[in-house]
UniProtKB/TrEMBL annotation:
This is Winged helix-turn-helix domain-containing protein. Keywords: DNA-binding. Residues 53-146 bind DNA. It holds the Pfam family Trans_reg_C. It comes from Variovorax humicola. Coiled coil: none annotated. The keyword DNA-binding applies.
Length: 551
């Protein structure tokens, strides 16, 4: 008598459930457990005559639920029991979001535990599997998002240290690192980025310095490696100051030898014409014209090529699609467990824990941790620099000193480029892109402690050498360069991030304009409050500076 086999996802669910909660072996798990360790399983079959599901593969990993094994490239990894239980449930239910309550019920059956225990297990899984495998859905739970391939008994089973011959384990052409550091708080951005790259051939991530454009581009490219026959290639352009050297730089990164028989630009484009590839051009702000020309040539002549660009400003091409990267999310409350669901606090907590294993986010430090993230506008680079100071100064000590951020955020991350080793160096990199007029307008916006109307910005920045139309045009370029934030609304307002404003105040002082701008600022808003021409502006809730931020 034969039995109809249940659908594969039901067989998967049954097998996974047998590995968590109750430890009583089912017939399926008994069959598996009789196999010799490290040997090939050749006779494991479901009751319906179909091959039994033995495990799940994703990237270089395989999960074998019945044996409670997590393998990487065929080798067992060290994983805690609770972390394995959480992973098993997430893979089992990978077609949907799994709520935290479900995870508690399955991984801690019958127990009452603190919510941060779950966050700790998810964090440990991300350290093992990479930051992109498990997505946090704020306010709802978690979802396993890595592509999964089921392995059954009729598949050729690798030994523990054997070679993985499945296509998902093949060597991917390209020059990306095999593993990337965790990416916190960017699940939605990563999903949007992948969708953009699928749909469009030229995508540019734009945002201010230190906001994490490179990390996001690397993560997106890494997750798409298997889709490009000729690989995914990253070209770092920050060290390059001469656009004429761009073709040689790209060719070197891709291992292409230019013969010199033609112009390097034409020779490079010809070499890339037949390729099916993703080309990531990183930190293009100083070479925007050259990158735009190369991108357009590849769009025209290399139909299999897609481009992902990171820059502080758009390239300005008709085919370009923009993803303007926002700061990491900040929590609305001081609940320590919930705060870890927000990228800014998660990043700060993880970085501090990596430096001090005794650190724990709790009710005593949560307020200061959140305030640090707020004062740093959720900017990842600034948060990492702050984390490096916490083992010495403590959380409250760092928070208390952020009014002097350029003196304190100087720890120097030795693995980073020079421009990312201090907060001031990062801002100077961006400031160096600006024209003379842009520098004047940027620093004068530092007089506003919050948002201001466009009219107020024009009044503060214009003078006998810069009329209001020049200032208006300049403000638009500063927004494009990600140095000024334009808040949408019935009447748009402009603002500087707090670190940008602190730097603008430094530049005002260096230019000798601080006293004069304070006076102009006071006179303008005195006129507004007395019903003069600025009255309509103050009715919009404009916040103004009582004095410049200390730096």
């Amino acid at each position: 008598m034969t039995h109809s086999a249940p659908p594969r996802h039901l067989r998967s669910s049954k097998l996974l459930k047998s590995s968590i909660g109750s430890r009583t072996p089912t017939p399926a798990t008994s069959c598996l457990e009789q196999a010799q360790p490290g040997g090939c399983i050749t006779a494991a079959w479901a009751l319906g005559g179909e091959p039994l599901l033995l495990g799940h593969r994703f990237g270089p990993f395989e999960v074998r639920p019945a044996q409670r094994l997590l393998l990487k490239n065929g080798l067992p990894m060290v994983i805690g029991a609770r972390a394995f239980d959480v992973l098993a449930v997430l893979i089992e239910q990978r077609d949907r979001v799994v709520t935290k309550l479900e995870l508690f019920d399955r991984a801690w059956p019958g127990l009452i535990v603190e919510e941060n225990n779950l966050a700790t297990q998810v964090s440990s899984l991300r350290k093992l599997l990479g930051a992109t495998a498990i997505a946090t859905i704020p306010g709802r739970g978690y979802r396993f998002v890595a592509p999964v391939v089921d392995r059954t008994a009729d598949d050729e089973a690798p030994t523990l240290a054997g070679d993985m011959t499945d296509a998902s384990f093949a060597h991917f052409p390209g020059n990306l690192a095999a593993e990337l550091p965790p990416l916190y708080g960017r699940d939605d951005d990563l999903g949007a980025m992948r969708a953009f790259i699928d749909a469009h051939r030229l995508v540019t991530i734009v945002g201010p310095c230190g906001i994490g454009k490179t990390r996001l581009a690397q993560a997106a490219a890494h997750s798409l490696r298997q889709r490009f026959r000729d690989g995914v290639w990253l070209v770092e352009l920050a060290p390059l100051a001469d656009g004429a050297l761009l073709p040689s730089r790209v060719a070197l990164a891709l291992g292409i030898t230019l013969s010199g028989m033609r112009e390097p630009f034409d020779e490079l484009v010809a070499a890339l014409e037949p390729r099916h590839m993703l080309l990531v051009l990183d930190n293009c702000e100083y070479l925007a014209a050259g990158v735009a020309a190369l991108s357009q040539a590849l769009l025209d002549r290399a139909p299999g090529a897609r481009l992902l660009v990171t820059s502080q400003s758009p390239l300005g091409l008709p085919a370009e699609w923009l993803l303007r990267l926002a700061p990491l999310a900040l929590p609305p409350s001081l609940d320590a467990a919930r705060a870890l669901d927000f990228g800014a606090v998660r990043l700060l907590s993880e970085r501090v824990t990596a430096l001090d294993r005794h650190f724990t986010l709790d009710a005593h430090n949560i307020a200061a941790m959140v305030e640090i993230c707020r004062q740093l506008d959720g900017l990842p680079l600034a948060i990492e620099l702050a984390a490096a100071r916490i083992p010495l100064l403590g959380v409250q000590g760092v928070q208390a000193r952020l009014a002097h951020r350029f003196q304190i955020l100087t720890s120097g991350l030795c693995c980073r480029p020079e421009r990312h080793r201090t907060l001031r160096a990062a801002l100077e990199w961006s400031h160096g892109l600006l024209s003379h007029e842009e520098r004047i307008v940027f620093r004068r916006l530092g007089m506003f402690s919050g948002a201001c109307t466009i009219e107020a910005a024009i009044h503060m920045a214009s003078d006998e050498h810069l009329d209001e139309w020049v200032v208006l045009e300049t403000l638009g370029r500063l927004v494009d360069r990600s140095l000024v934030v334009a808040d949408e609304g019935e009447r748009p307002c402009l603002r500087l991030l707090q670190s940008m404003r602190a730097y603008a105040i430094v530049k005002l002082a260096e230019a000798g304009e601080l006293f004069a701008l304070r006076r102009r600022h006071a006179e303008y808003f005195a006129d507004s409050s007395s019903g003069g021409q600025g009255d309509a502006r103050t009715s919009l809730g404009l916040r103004v500076a009582a004095g410049p931020m200390r730096s």
